[in-house]
């Protein structure tokens, strides 16, 4: 099968950038190639010389900080990508404008799929040219059909994958270490609820429970963090311990090595319309860490409370106390911890790149067979 994958105007393919959409489709597209399909990526050209001869790399753009300007740049890039791409059987789209503009290039493809990686903003009804709308989580799917019920028959849920060769645990279980540590990996931003986490760990130290806290990720505003003022605020909440700060790690294998140092992975996000799936806790689950997450719908596709992780209500005024209680439960019950760890590892194994790639290929074949 011939498959064209158009990404967005602002991110390059790995290893030249680490955008989530680019990483996702590069891994899936590469797997499809390895299974005998002809896959062409149409993406932003990196500044460095690229040897990606099998792909179509175009001049892209940097984000301007203006939504309107970025919207226009997306339009320009989408037109270029669609006009220059070769003919294909299946067209995968990720930019904002491409699902509309593709109608001008209908002779170049047989069917098209749009990857709904963010919560829709009532634009899905305009994407009527799409044969399939693949949502990354049930939460995104529910939002889509609520906003655009006419598109329900075209919508489906296909999760984001993780690299199960890297984020894995050969022992199939993890036990609590003598000096347990809580780990967070992601942007150090206010919407991630890290103040709740720091307060919860401080509560434990105030009652004599010793546990470390390791925060991995970007703090600078230009890198997606909330800046040094937010870091200073988090530090001001610390009592009786020190936060271990780790700069963002772009290598998956090095990130896995850093996360493995911990016992519990906490992702206390309060971004109800910002989190669409939650790759970070799923990767940690693969390593055997037991996850504790906020009560956002996006985590419910792979975390079951009291089975392979714990969930706390981030909307409760006592949220830091509730999180502290979750931490205490795991730290004080090694049997429960190990049982949850084993179940977390088993669950994560179902999100391999190969399996998710096959899910997409199954959709491709279904819509192509409908001609």
Automatic annotation (TrEMBL):
State the source organism's domain of life: Bacteria
This protein's record includes keyword Glycosyltransferase = yes
**Keywords, in A-Z order:** Glycosyltransferase, Transferase
Offer one Pfam family short name for this entry.
Answer: Glycos_transf_1
Q: Which Gene3D superfamilies match?
A: Glycogen Phosphorylase B
Residue stretches making up the Glycosyl transferase family domain: 177-346
The Swiss-Prot or TrEMBL record annotates one GO molecular function as:
glycosyltransferase activity
Q: Does the keyword Transferase apply?
A: yes
- Which PANTHER family does the record match to this protein? GLYCOSYLTRANSFERASE
The name this protein carries in UniProt is Lipopolysaccharide N-acetylglucosaminyltransferase
Q: Which organism is it from?
A: Bacteroides xylanisolvens SD CC 1b
